[in-house]
Amino acid sequence: MRYWYLVICSLAMMVIISCNMDKDELKPAVSQSPSIDYTKTPNKQTIDGKLTLTPIIYPSITNELRKSVTVTSQSVSPTSMVKHPIDYRSFIGLHVPPFPDKNQEKGSTLIDTVTNYGLHLVLSEDEVFMIWFTKSNRVLDILPLPHLGKMDIITTNYCSIDAQEDPEIFTLSTFDQEALRTRFFTNSKIRQAWRANRSSGEIKPISTKGIECSAEGGFDPNGITSQH
After folding, report:
1. What is the pLDDT of residue 4?
2. 183, 181, 157: which is closest to 170 by C-alpha?
3. Domain positions in the chain
4. Nearest Cα to 154, choosing from 113, 110, 202, 119?
5. What's the pLDDT tens digit per position in 40-89?
6. Nearest-CA neighbor of 218 among 145, 162, 169?
7. CA distance linking residue 177 with residue 172, whole number of Å
8. pTM of the model
9. Stretch 178-205: mean pLDDT, rounded?
10. Burial call 106-127: b when 16+ CB within 10 Å, e when fewer
11. Is the peptide bond before 85 cis (omega within 30 degrees of 0)?
12. In the chain, % of residues over pLDDT 70
């Protein structure tokens, strides 16, 4: 009897040990993780006897995020936006006069008295001289002119190309003593030229080759001809 009693006790002990080992294996992996020790983190706090964790904010990462936000806000700052010039072409189709507010007509001429095609010298609100091309006072096209020097004039009506008179041509020409004396611009005095095309209703730049103009016709905003 004693022998069987000892055998039964030994088997019982083995079962108990085996059960305890199974329980240890079934514990959550978090409790056995050696890489994180939550009890030593500086942001721990205890609520109702339970350990809770608050987020850790890393200064280096926060600073980088602030920098990126600052750069983004500067890239859309209103002060960095480019100011666009006035859209003169929005005036095409208008009937003139009257001219739009703050745009002043400084002179006009007809290049075709039969069909009423005309050119108008207009000073815009931002102090830019322009040529407005019209038919029966309806605006067909607008050309902002380059800067006019003190001795520059816009010649119209009396221009020729290869000795053939062409009323559609107008030019930017520069006076010198000879031009003032003869009231005529030889080809070397013609700086730029354009054609007010009656067929297309457009102003297009053209070559100055072969062009000569009389100084008696055109727009003289600086009053050069009246001073000499």
Report:
1. 58
2. 157
3. 88-223
4. 119
5. 444 444 445 554 444 444 444 445 544 443 433 333 333 333 344 567 88
6. 169
7. 17
8. 0.61
9. 95
10. eebbebeeeeebbbbbbbbeee
11. no
12. 62
Q: How high is the pLDDT of residue 119?
A: 97
CA distance 134 to 55: 73
Give the residue carrying structure tokens 């003139």: 96
* Burial of 218: CB neighbours in 10 Å, binned 0-12, 13-18, 19+: buried
Residue 146: phi, psi to the nearest 5?
A: -65, 170
